[in-house]
Amino acid sequence: MKRIFLFVLDSCGIGAMPDAESFGDIGVNTLKSCTTSDKLHIPTMIAAGLGNIDGIDYLPKTDAPTGAVARMQEASMGKDTTIGHWEISGLISPEPLPTYPDGFPQEVLDAFEAATGRGCLCNLPYSGTDVIRDYGQEHLDTGKWIIYTSADSVFQVAAHENKVPLEELYEACHKARNILRGKHGVGRVIARPFVGDSVNGFKRTANRHDYSLEPPAKTMLDAIKAAGLDSIAVGKIHDIFAGYGDTEYVYNKSNTNGMEHAANYAKQDFTGLCFVNLVDFDMLYGHRRDIDGYANALTEFDRWLGDFLPTLGDDDLVMITADHGCDPAYTATTDHTREYVPLLVLGKKVRPKNLGTRKTFADIAATVTELLGVEYETAGESFASEII
């Protein structure tokens, strides 16, 4: 293949994994929850065979799928963005990244305050929208950072754009990233700028940035780049991999913007991988437990996909998957959920086939690199010969 477009529908899980209860997740199923909404209309993905995937008994099946499909099991011990994307790219993480259900230890806060010259508020697991509601005014009054976390391995820094310049917030997150290593090496430090006031309400902006822990080994992105091919990162892919392995990158302002970027790259003559993360599913709808919003976002992607596929050439291939779940109907928490994820593979040379349940997301990396003719060692198993 000449070009592979790999889309991560961030958090679009398709059902609880066998060990989900040990992660605190019982009966979770992100995609199934979306089927309860009348906003869901995904004929392109259903025609591809989405309903034929193992364990999906809540969508129509087709006798003549247009694509190859699989259910992907996560071998890593996590349910977060960083570990999920690392595994998609070939790395399995047997140990979970550290989490802080009681907040960060004082030694971390002291180091961060000394490095940035500002104090800290909150330091608890919190919903991102609730934390600015509860601490936004105190932040404006004091200039202190709002520090919070979640069930995931994240150190989140919220600041009002009119109180703290974006450049200062980003620099503070760079400093936090340098502090949070070793035993406190969280998966991501996240800059969470917001605007508004306590009367009309505070609102997060699109100027979020993620500062990820560097991957512990080479990923498929590194291998593709080293082979002299294009490795294009769209959305937060550049941040997730701490800038490693891409030859070009662009950020998204929304899912719609990310799809526009992918369409624009499809018009260009490149050879290699275009790796796209669409985060609105997770950030705007999963965590906020907005079923209709999530369903509508899937509908928008499906409609766009139906227009996108006919523009591709004979040597182009599309893969669609996810990195974890975030069930919008699950009320026990507002965090990610431990789920299987789907895989759809589409293209003019793709042989429709049900690939069953795969043991690891890393099968994607093994397949991508084989299809591009790139040498890369991973624990994943390629299914290239089964579908081309």
What descriptive keywords fit this protein?
388 residues; alpha/beta; Alkaline Phosphatase, subunit A; Alpha-Beta Plaits; eight-stranded mixed sheet
Describe the protein's architecture and organization.
By secondary structure, the chain is of the alpha/beta class. The protein has 2 domains: 3-94 and 215-387, Alkaline Phosphatase, subunit A; 106-211, 2-Layer Sandwich (Alpha-Beta Plaits). 31% of the residues lie in helices and 21% in strands. The chain is built from 13 helices and 14 strands. It has an 8-stranded mixed sheet with strand order 10-9-11-1-12-13-2-14, sandwiched between helices. Strands 3, 4, 5, 6, 7 and 8 form a 6-stranded mixed sheet that branches. The N and C termini lie close together (9 Å). The mean pLDDT is 97.
Overall tally of structural domains: 2
Instruction: Kindly estimate the percentage of residues that lie in beta strands according to DSSP.
Output: 15-25%
CATH topology of the largest domain: Alkaline Phosphatase, subunit A
Main sheet: strands, sense, barrel? 8 strands, mixed
The overall average pLDDT, rounded, is 97
Looking at this structure, what is the CATH superfamily of the largest domain?
Alkaline Phosphatase, subunit A
The gist of it:
By secondary structure, this protein is an alpha/beta fold. Helices cover 31% and strands 21% of the residues.
